[in-house]
Amino acid sequence: MQRIAGACFSVIAFLFAAVAPALAAAADAGYPDRPIRLVIPWSVGGSTDLLGRILAERMGRDLDTTVVVENKPGATGTIGYAQVARASGDGYTLLLGTNSTFAIAPHFYHDLPYDVTTDFVAVGMIGSNQQVLCVHPGVPAGTLAELVQYAKQQPGAVTYASSGVGGSSHLAMELLMSTTGTQMLHVPYRGGAPAVQAILGGQTQAGFVDISIAEPLVRAGKLRALGTSGARRAPLLPDTPTLAEAGAAGFESLTTFGLFMPAGTPAKVVARINTALNAALQDPAVTEKLGGLGFELTGGSPAAYAVYAKTETAKWGNLIQQRHIVLP
After folding, report:
1. For residue 37, what is the enclosing H or E element?
2. What is the DSSP letter of 124?
3. Residue 278: other Cβ atoms inside 10 A
4. Alpha-carbon distance 106 to 114, whole Å?
5. Number of neighbouring beta carbons within 10 Å of residue 159
6. How many Å apart are CA 102 and CA 262, to the nearest integer?
7. 188 in helix, strand or coil?
8. What residues have CB less than 8 Å from 69, skipping those under 6 apart?
9. Pairing with 172, which of 53, 101, 212, 249 sits 20 to 30 Å away (CA)?
10. Could you check whether the bond before residue 106 is cis, i.e. omega within 30 degrees of 0?
C-alpha cells in the first residue's frame, strides 16, 4: 500500500511539475485584466505631465488596457511618491519618477513617509531633458570661459536665478561653480517660469533653463546660450557646445525620467511593463512628439535603471553635503 501511495504521489508531482509552467503562463497572459494607473507627482500641463500622458496612451495599446494618469503634485513630488509607496504591489500602480525627487529630495527632507531604496522597484529609464546655461544678452560673456572670468573678477556679485533652493536649476549651478571654482549669488524664485522671466528682464544675469523653454528664446536672441548640460550635444541646440566641451570638465546635470512600481511587485509584471515602455520609446510617433519637447529617450532594463538611481542619489548627496546646501 505504501509503495502504491508513493507511486501515486510521484505521478502527481510529475504532472504538477509538467503543468505548472503552463499554469503560470496562463496567469501571466491574464495580466493586466483591468486599468493601470500612472501617478505623476507634478501638475497637469507641464512637460513631465505631457511625457507621462504620451507614454500612457502608447503603453496602454501594447498592454491592451487603459493606463489612467493621476496627477498628485506637491512637496517637490514627494506626495505622489508617498501614495505609490503605500499602494499594493499588484502590478496596477506605476510612478513616473524624476531624479529631482528620488535622488535629490531625500537629502533635504529627512522625515519622508517612505524610503526610496526599499519602497519602490525600478521598471526602466525613460530618458532625459537637458538644461541650458543662459545669460542675459547684456552680460559681457559669450562663452563659459568668459563667464568664469567675469565671475572671478567679482566673486559673489554675478547673480543667477533658479526655480528654488534644492531645485535642479539650483543644483546644476552649484555643480558648475564647484567645477569651475567660481562663486555667484543665488536668487531663488518660486518655480521655473519666474526664474526665466528674471533672466529675460535682467533682474538676474544667468541661470539654467530647461531646453524646451530655452531653445526658442535663444534662437530669438532673448537669451544667450553658453552651454548645454548633457554629456552630448542637445539635438535641439546642436551648435551649442556641452559645458564639458566648453571647459567644465566632466560636467553633467540632467533632469531624468523613469518608471517605478511599489515594492513587492512580481518580477514578471515588472518585466511586462518594461517591455511595453521600451516599445513605446521606439515608436516613431512617440519619439517625434517627445523629441520636439527636448526629451532624449533611452529606455533600458529594470536592473540598469536601479543602478542609475543609486549612482545619481550618491552624486547629488555628495554635492549637497560639500556645498552645505540646506532648505530655508
Report:
1. strand 36-40
2. E
3. 19
4. 10
5. 17
6. 14
7. strand
8. 37, 38, 40, 49, 52, 53, 56
9. 53
10. no
Set of cell numbers at residue 264: 513587492
Per-residue pLDDT of the chain (328 residues; tens, 9 = 90+): 444 444 443 433 443 344 334 334 434 568 999 999 999 998 888 889 999 999 999 999 999 999 999 999 888 789 999 999 999 999 999 999 999 999 999 999 889 999 999 999 999 999 999 999 999 999 999 999 999 999 999 999 999 999 999 999 999 999 999 999 999 999 999 888 999 999 999 999 999 999 999 999 999 999 999 999 999 999 999 999 999 999 999 999 999 999 999 999 999 999 999 999 999 999 999 999 999 999 999 999 999 999 999 999 999 999 999 999 998 8
DSSP 224: E
The C-alpha atoms of residue 36 and residue 44 are separated, in whole angstroms, by: 19
Task: Give the type of residue at 241.
Answer: P
Dihedral pair phi/psi, residue 116, rounded to 5°: -65, -20
